[in-house]
Fold each of these.
Amino acid sequence: MRWHSGEDLLPFLRGAPFVDVAEGRLHVTRLDPADSLSYPVGAWQHALSTAGVRLVFSTTANKISFRAWDPGLQPEEEGIVSLWLEDSRLAASNQRNPGDEVQVELALPAQGEQTYSLYLPYISRLEPMALGVPDGATLSSVDPPPHVWAAYGDSITQGRTASDPGLTYVAQAARLAGVEPLNLGYRGWARGEPGAAHMLAAMNFDILSILMGVNVRVSSWLDAAAWRETFRNFIELVRLGHPTTPILVMSILSCHGEFADATPNARGVTMNALREAEHDVVSQRIAGGDAHIRLIDGSSILGPNDAALIPDGTHPNDTGMNLIATRIAPVLREMLEL
């Protein structure tokens, strides 16, 4: 086998907003490590997952070998690594080896030179060490799409309950829209934290989507009036660094079961009220002259009649993820004027 290892993997790495190389491994974080004290501990833990992180490469090989370190993040979770050719999954491997090395070997179709994407786990974490192909096979990097989409949100954006890291709505919508995605979803968080808004203001991207608010209701974090102000402040902070960058707001998707849209939490707050607060903020920004923000009502994507697509009440299954992706991909392209 001929191996690319350590920093030689950097040309293949995608979806990694912050990365350094240490001990021969790529250490990816999805929140800014230079400002780690600005984030809640729980958010930081989930920022260490490799959601949306991929190795993209072109090769003539008939198989690929991948070595990575499993640091043991979320040891109870699966560690699915999946290989995709365009919009088709070719193979997947679910291996965990906390505190040690993982090696995966996946067969490739014998179709000459092709471009593949190797998706890393979206809940747990792998630190890439090496990518290998048989002697005589080519292995080269591929230029990414020119437009970067930053997708900010909670566990729905991170991909919770998708059966494969390539089936999160972010992964699917990015392939449909032909854009380069950054998955900035954090399980249990995205409740308007100012540290995250400041991070987004400082990042480079061409379009931003925001899907958050579920955890405000689930945790009884804020009432509707406080959420309206928090949401307004969050967008204003982002606008400090991106005054004219397109922002797509998806309001809270319909929820079911104990979290059903009209069911109040301990503070009397409903998903409906929080969603309406988000609508108010975006409407006020548009009325105030922000021509680069757009709203999609989340209940029009996954609505009150879609309980079968949201088995646990808040997280879409694969079909639900696909519905989100197919709805927002054309909007992303339109806002980017593609």
Amino acid sequence: MLALRGSIVAAALGLAALAPAYAEDIVVTQYKADPSGASFAIAIEKGFFKKHGVNITEVISGEGGGTSVRNVIASDLGYGEVSPAPVISAIKEGQDIKIVNFGTRSLASNVVIVMPNSPIQKIEDLKGKKWGISNPKSLGEMSAVLTVEKAGLKPEDVQRVALGNLQGALTAMENGAIDVTSVPGILYRSRGNDQKYRVILKPKDLPRMTPGIGIATGDLMRKNPDKLRRIIAARQEAVQWMYKNPKESGEILAKVWAPLPPAAVQILLDELLDAQFYSEGGIEDAPMENVVRAMKITGMIDTDVDLKTVIDKSFLPDNLKNVK
């Protein structure tokens, strides 16, 4: 009997060690306005976090930029998904954080659009034109310079015009003040925008620069490395499930991306999956190198970045550690 009780106690302690006693939130940049963080909705809904012994039950939508990075640093969890440029800047300033996994692999969450009557038919026609962005040194400006480069043009061949926000860019384009802009797919398919504008560059054709990466604080990495590994593993399983189950994934994400109609959600998700937008977590060289190059072109940094100083691959599953 004593032996049986000892076994029960040991088992209970083992379970207690695996699952935390309280629910935790995770910070994801622009969670409902940008599709980059979709895997977290899937991981929560399908129970992958709980399966891996992590009790993450809610997502907090970050405002973006340095604000989201600071939110992750201040959070109890110490992990979140944010844009890479402000992370690199924060590390250069001495913040104790690292990039520990990829969330997304390209700029496929956006579309490049013009007015229906625009003479611009392809990206090469942009030479001498005006591209509307929200703000200087933003992800939108980084996207613009890399897209222009992909067309074989120089960044200075296209004038970038800052208009404060994406809605401002759309209004300016409608009034003829700019010629082209890029917007998230969710915004493009909202409120009939897909009938108001013409796409000249689809998600699959956009440059390989990651807009979403997982970061962890030094505190989490040192004090609870196994927990960090479980978070990344749960997210990996969610991404694998999305590719295998696109229809059910769309039904789950329709709740997150509302009021976008379910049919539009499915179209958007299918485009993203076809573009291999979502990463299982492996940190690829080219998308990160493009981040650094775009940061230099837009004046965010003036020197090269040794990516080994901002990345830690040791928490990735073994099959992702050698991804190049």
Amino acid sequence: MNSRQSPVNTQERFRVASYKLQVENQQCRCGKCGLSAIWRSIKSSLWVVALTLAVMLLIVGCSNTSGGIATFTPPAIQPKILVTVYISPTPNAEQQQAIAAANPPTATLAVIPTASATPYIGVFLGEVDNGADGGAIIPPALLGGATSNVPVTLALGPACPSQADVAFGTRWSENVDIATALGCPIEGAANLQGTLQIFERGVMYYSPTGEIWAISPIQSHYWYALNAPPVQQGDLVVPEGMMAPSQGFGAVWRGLPGVQDALGFAKTPEQGTKMVTQKFQNGVLLADGQSGQVFVLLSDGRAMGPY
């Protein structure tokens, strides 16, 4: 009985085998169906791409064969709108900087004329006498006459923002060392009705402001007093034909050391004269309006002139 199989078992095996075969066939068919679906999807995508390319080529071909010339249409001109900017009459620091940046200063070229020799026109006053007897700075014989009408020109100094007054002429500025030592003007010229007195070896000037200058051209030195010092008393032996100065001149002549020895005795009395003075960085220019002579008086005590 063990060697023989029953009909029931045989049929059961046949059904199992048949079921497995059906399952395998079904799985095979399902796989083929999936591949077919994928292939159909790919073919559809390719057709879409091909159709798109054909349409694009058709559009490009039509545009190239149209023969039209492209034209440029300029945009309409827009009107400009003017804006009025209000500037405050009292701008602050930031507004001042903006105004300065919007309005830069215009550089001005300085015209420097070529220096040339100028002939002396007018009354010849003579050179300073350096002889043993000591001549007068300004010849007394000419002081009683009219003021000399000597034409003058403006003294130029391109490095200075302001220049010397025309009353001083240009002879003094021809010496570059003197003009450089004097510097630039710091004030305008002052026209004064002053007083002068001529000495053996120099001259003294008095200004209505109380200032007194004692000038010794021989020594190239001068003394200055803002106001006259107290008068020094004492007896003097005055040479014949000479005189001792008095009042403010006498106080400076006696009171400031060195003035009496440098200037000597007075040769003329005091007399009025027109004066022009102008202060500079390192000294002052003094012009005798009656004789036309100019002195350069430096702050270190040096005196140059007369010119």
Amino acid sequence: MGEKDISEKVLEDYNDVFADIVNVLLFHGERLVKEDELENVKDKSQYKADEKLHEQERDVVKIWRKDGRDCRIRIALFGIENQTDIDADMVFRVLGYDGAGYRRQLLKKEKEEDTREETGIPENETEIEVEGGKERYPVITLVLYFGYERRWKKRTLYEIMDIPEELKPYVSDYRMNVFEIAWLTDEQVQMFQSDFKIVADYFVQMRKNKYYTPSEETIKHVDEILKMMAVLTKDRSFEEAQNMIREEKGEAKSMETFLSKAMRESRAEGEIKGKIEGKIEGEKKLLISQVYKKMLKEQEAEEIAEDLVEEISEIQRIYDIIEEDLPEFDVDKVYERLSAEAVKEPA
């Protein structure tokens, strides 16, 4: 699994964040799922296609045991999938993930039946162990879409397939649960109680305002949220803020604190870079002017290079550009053409 994929998932893997996402998006903010009722599950499945064995893995998946870890009753399996772009085949992917989740329950039952036969354990004793849930539970996948330029319209099997009307009665439709984070209402954003509130707030602000005013909410999982935001947004400010936390540990921080400092340092670096670039530009334009004045005296490129103690190749480029524009001369235009040619040159 790539570093980018891991960075997207690590924040959501915390039980407080996972439970918060489920409670807000599925239960409208009601705290039905408690963080201590969630258990991590490694959810990898395999399938055969083109005579090859393939593996698929969910982003984040957890089992919800309503009465806690000591209880055998499983209420549901929740999976979260992150998407920054619209995937036309996502319905198929989610259907595969959910199908694998149900298939695993069937395989588990078959394994338990084999165990009973091998050990001679009475059937009713095994039934007592799984009484209530009997290892049958729904599989629910939440697709979190972080794009804010396009809406996700096609969410069902019927919508992505051209199914003849006469076949529709025999084809079960399948709907995936897509939650467009950037289109959440302000009220929904305020329902979040974990660090995911900061994530949702960012995307809603960017969709509505095209800019982000950092939140003053205290961050609990600092490194994890900055990593996730850096991957999802491709904004360097989050990477720079992430570097700071290695130097400033042990103190509660908000996104406003981190990004404000990162932006100040970025501006300072930009000013230094600007001064350096400005100095280089000034020196280059001075050289161009000197070449032009010597050309007016009918000096050739080699003679000018010798007088100015510059590389003949550099002077020749300047000489040729000026000569093309004569009798007009504009130092800024010559500099722009010189810079453009430098960019096109192979490294």
